[in-house]
């Protein structure tokens, strides 16, 4: 009778470069049960043949098969996926691949936007002069509705009223809610015009006083990430010993009206300070 090599769980673990914890997990799952368990000591022993079984489990895991799927395969005495099973796994992998490519593209855009922002002068202190604005205040379903509102509602009405805007244009929003509201936000849109006009149901004209000193910070990206720039802006205000003293404005340079990619939208946050 030939000798049958048996390895303690620690030896088996070391040789196969798999933790004992993993081996015990495989045992609990019914994937790889020790060939022998000493009733007196509780020692678990594995055979040389089980090395190949373990390697098969690892290979199938790397191909995307779950432990439950591998268990079913091994219980069928083949441990080899059928053509149908391989085809299904290929389809699943292609779905994950598309998701990963989409994630990579979003990460690339975000990184490029951050690089672009770092090349700009992030902060500047400016005086905001007294201006006349055409104003429209509305409860919006969400912040993404700002762009369509400008394009579809405000711009046609300003054109109908014959508004003349100085160059370069200056438009911004003011938030009137006392707290963040992801839906039904009270937003006022203002766009600088050359002279007071006749109010309509959509547009009201008003004169805004000068702001002697404002911290201005460029924001590149969609409006849902304004909070990131506010964190930096208020940190800068604290570090420089300034004090915010008024309602901030969010000025829009590039948006949905001339740039489809939200990652390239350019806005400027303006915070009155002293």
Number of helices: 7
CA-CA gap between termini: 94 Å
Q: Would you tell me the structural class of the helices and strands?
A: alpha+beta
Outline type: elongated
Enumerate the strands of the largest sheet in spatial order, edge to edge or round the barrel.
4-9-11-10-6-7-5-8
Order of helices and strands: EHHEEHHHEEHEEEEHEE
Q: If you compute it from the alpha carbons, what radius of gyration comes out, rounded to the nearest whole angstrom?
A: 32 Å
Work out the helicity level.
Answer: 25-40%
Percent strand: 15-25%
Main traits of this protein?
11 strands, three-stranded antiparallel sheet, alpha+beta, 274 residues, eight-stranded antiparallel sheet, 7 helices, 39% helix, elongated
Task: Write up what this structure looks like.
The strands form 2 sheets. An 8-stranded antiparallel sheet has the order 4-9-11-10-6-7-5-8. Helix content is 39%, strand content 24%. The chain has 274 residues and is an alpha+beta fold. The chain has helices at residues 9-16, 20-29, 48-62, 67-75, 83-119, 146-160, 226-239, and strands spanning 6-8, 36-37, 44-47, 123-128, 131-140, 171-175, 185-193, 204-208, 211-220, 249-254, 266-272. It has 7 helices and 11 strands. The chain is elongated, with a radius of gyration of 32 Å.
């Amino acid at each position: 009778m030939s000798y049958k090599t048996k390895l303690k769980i620690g030896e088996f673990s070391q040789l196969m470069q798999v933790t004992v914890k993993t081996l015990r997990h495989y045992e609990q799952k019914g994937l790889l049960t020790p060939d022998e368990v000493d009733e007196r000591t509780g020692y678990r022993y594995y055979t040389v043949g089980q090395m190949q079984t373990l390697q098969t489990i690892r290979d199938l895991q790397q191909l995307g098969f779950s432990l439950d799927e591998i268990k079913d395969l091994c219980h069928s005495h083949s441990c080899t996926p059928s053509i149908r099973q391989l085809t299904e796994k290929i389809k699943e992998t292609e779905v994950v691949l598309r998701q990963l490519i989409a994630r990579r593209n979003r990460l690339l855009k975000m990184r490029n936007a951050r690089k672009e922002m770092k090349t700009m002068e992030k902060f500047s202190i400016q005086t905001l002069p007294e201006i006349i604005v055409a104003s429209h205040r509305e409860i919006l379903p969400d912040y993404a509705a700002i762009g369509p509102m400008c394009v579809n509602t405000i711009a046609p009405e300003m054109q109908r009223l014959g508004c003349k805007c100085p160059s370069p244009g200056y438009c911004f929003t003011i938030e009137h809610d006392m707290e963040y509201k992801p839906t039904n936000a009270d937003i006022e849109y203002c766009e600088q015009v050359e002279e007071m006009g006749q109010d309509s149901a959509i547009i009201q004209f008003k004169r805004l006083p000068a702001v002697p000193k404002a911290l201005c910070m460029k924001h590149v990206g969609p409006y849902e990430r304004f909070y990131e720039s506010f964190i930096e802006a208020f940190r800068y205000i604290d570090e420089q010993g300034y004090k915010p003293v008024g309602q901030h404005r969010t000025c829009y340079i590039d948006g949905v009206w001339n740039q489809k990619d939200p990652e390239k939208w350019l806005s400027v946050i303006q915070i009155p300070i002293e």
